[in-house]
Every structure is written in C-alpha cells, then in structure tokens.
C-alpha cells in the first residue's frame, strides 16, 4: 500500500493529493488556533462538524450560482475539492462590529453596521496577516483588478445568502472570512470560492440570547466549543434532533482504530 501524498498542512486542515489530476482531498483536523497561532488547542469533533457544515453551505452556494472548489464529501473528515491556486488574501465581511474592528476603531461590540464592510488581509503568518487596501493588492500583483471585482461580488452574494440562511435558524451572522482560488481551465483561470465556511471562520450569535456559537468560545476561553458547533449543525438540520450522532460515530471509529 502506498501512502497518499500530503500537499500542504495548515492550522486546521491538511490537503492531500486527490484521486484525479486537478483534485485534492481536504482533511479537517480538530486543532484550533487563535491570535496567529499564539493560542493552540484541540476541540474534539470539530473537524467532523466543520466538514459537514462547510459541505452544506458550499453545496447551497453552488445552487445559487456561486462557483466553489467543493466536489463532494468523502467521509467524516474529508472532502474532495478542485485544486486551485489560493489567492493570498483573506476576505472578511462584517455586518456587526466584533473582534478586530472593535479594538481597531473603538466601536462597541454588537453595533449593527450601517452598511456591510469588506476588508482584505494579506495571508502571511510571519507578518500576522496585515490588513491591506485594494491598492496594495494591485501594486504587489496579489490579484488582478478583474479578480478583485469578482471576489467582492461573490463576497456580497455569499453574505446575502448566509444572512438569510442563518436568520432562518435564529442566528445573527456577525462576520466571516472567505478565501478564493484560481481554477485553471486550459489557458483560462477563473476565481472560485475555496477553503471552508464553518464556525471557525464566522461569528454566529444566537438572535435571542446573544450567545456566541463560534470560535470566539475558544478565543475568549468561554468553554463549550464543541457544543456550540454542534448547535449550529443541529439548527442547519445536519444532526438528528437531540443526538450527537456525528461525534458518537467519530468516537466509535477512533475506538476501532479506523
Ligand atoms: P477579526 O475580527 O479577528 O478580524 O475576524 C473577522 C472574522 O474573520 C471572524 O469571523 C473570524 C475570521 N477570521 C478567520 O477566519 N481567520 C483569521 O485568521 C482571522 C484573523 C479572522
């Protein structure tokens, strides 16, 4: 038996060579980091939940015409994706003030923003992912003007769709982060949505209680991380009512050494 080739290991995911050229396998780990990996931990079962939640959201986005790298889920922790060249820009969409914008601009957490804000951060761990302007992106050639136009357009469509999706299950979509990649088709490339959409990269607050149901539970030492992620999966209809099926199954697999 030959071991499959690892292409890349990030903080929360591993990419392996896929079964066909142009595909990769995206594996979701339980590792959690915050503050540019200064804080590290494990959230047992997170990878299973994020795989499922991201599959669900990417599939729905596909149905409204947002192109994504997602092909299909393979098992509890893995999905088959299209290989892309990741554009080194983290795209953050904000509807409500929280996190870094609160610190940077002194706005009170929870303030509804009068309009949606899109921010760009240059993906570079050594630099701590600094915020950049369109001018930096154009000047240093990280993405073309046309690509940035498509990215901003898709970010707004994803936001509109996800605001509705989450409002329908009693959750306020505060902010989230997206990543995009170039998908090559012969001589042409087009930008598609890549990475993942899960409570790791979104802020999701219960609409009535204000409870945080996302990675801020880990960042702020609030506890109950896995329960929060599970609550999101449950409300999205991905877990049978009153059961922790995904996690129980995962434990079962681990105990059998699979
Ligand atoms: P921020 O308020 O810390 O700038 O984060 C904005 C959103 O982006 C929040 O939902 C968390 C997400 N995010 C990531 O997914 N990865 C990151 O490295 C950072 C800094 C934020």
UniProtKB/TrEMBL annotation:
This protein's record includes keyword rRNA-binding: no
Domain SAICAR synthetase/ADE2 N-terminal intervals: 6-235
Enzyme Commission number: 6.3.2.6
Pfam families with a match to the protein in the record: SAICAR_synt
Substrates-to-products reaction catalysed: 5-amino-1-(5-phospho-D-ribosyl)imidazole-4-carboxylate + L-aspartate + ATP = (2S)-2-[5-amino-1-(5-phospho-beta-D-ribosyl)imidazole-4-carboxamido]succinate + ADP + phosphate + 2 H(+)
GO cellular component: cytosol
Pathway: Purine metabolism; IMP biosynthesis via de novo pathway; 5-amino-1-(5-phospho-D-ribosyl)imidazole-4-carboxamide from 5-amino-1-(5-phospho-D-ribosyl)imidazole-4-carboxylate: step 1/2
Coiled-coil region list: none
Molecular function terms, GO-annotated: ATP binding; phosphoribosylaminoimidazolesuccinocarboxamide synthase activity
Alphabetical list of InterPro entries matching this protein: SAICAR_synt/ADE2_N (IPR028923), SAICAR_synt_PurC (IPR033934), SAICAR_synth (IPR001636), SAICAR_synthetase (IPR050089), SAICAR_synthetase_CS (IPR018236)
GO biological process assignments: 'de novo' IMP biosynthetic process; cobalamin biosynthetic process
UniProt keyword list: ATP-binding, Ligase, Nucleotide-binding, Purine biosynthesis
Enzyme class, spelled out: ligase
Entry annotated with the keyword ATP-binding: yes
Database matches in Gene3D superfamilies: ATP-grasp fold, B domain, Phosphorylase Kinase, domain 1
Family membership noted in the UniProt record: Belongs to the SAICAR synthetase family.
Protein name per the record: Phosphoribosylaminoimidazole-succinocarboxamide synthase
Organism name: Sphingomonas montanisoli
Biological classification of the source: Bacteria, Pseudomonadati, Pseudomonadota, Alphaproteobacteria, Sphingomonadales
């Amino acid at each position: 038996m030959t071991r499959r080739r690892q292409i890349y290991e990030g903080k929360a995911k591993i990419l392996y060579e896929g079964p066909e050229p142009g595909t990769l396998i995206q594996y979701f780990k339980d590792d959690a980091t915050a503050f540019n990996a200064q804080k590290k931990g494990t959230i047992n079962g997170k990878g299973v939940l994020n795989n499922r939640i991201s599959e669900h959201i990417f599939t729905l986005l596909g149905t409204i015409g947002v192109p994504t790298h997602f092909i299909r889920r393979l098992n509890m922790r893995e999905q088959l994706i299209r290989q892309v060249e990741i554009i080194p820009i983290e795209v953050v969409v904000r509807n409500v003030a929280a996190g870094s914008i609160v610190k940077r601009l002194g706005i009170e957490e929870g303030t509804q923003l009068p309009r949606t804000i899109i921010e760009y951060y240059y993906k570079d761990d050594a630099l701590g992912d600094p915020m950049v302007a369109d001018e930096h992106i154009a000047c240093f050639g990280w993405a073309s003007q046309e690509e940035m136009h498509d990215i901003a357009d898709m970010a707004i469509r994803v936001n509109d769709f996800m605001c509705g999706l989450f409002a329908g299950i009693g959750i306020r979509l505060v902010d989230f982060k997206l990543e995009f990649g170039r998908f090559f088709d012969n001589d042409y490339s087009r930008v598609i949505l890549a990475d993942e959409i899960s409570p790791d990269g979104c802020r999701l607050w219960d609409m009535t209680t204000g409870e945080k149901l996302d990675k801020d539970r880990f960042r702020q030492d609030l506890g109950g991380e896995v329960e929060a992620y599970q609550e999101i999966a449950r409300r999205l209809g991905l877990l049978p009512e009153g059961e922790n099926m995904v996690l129980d199954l995962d434990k079962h697999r681990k105990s059998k050494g699979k």
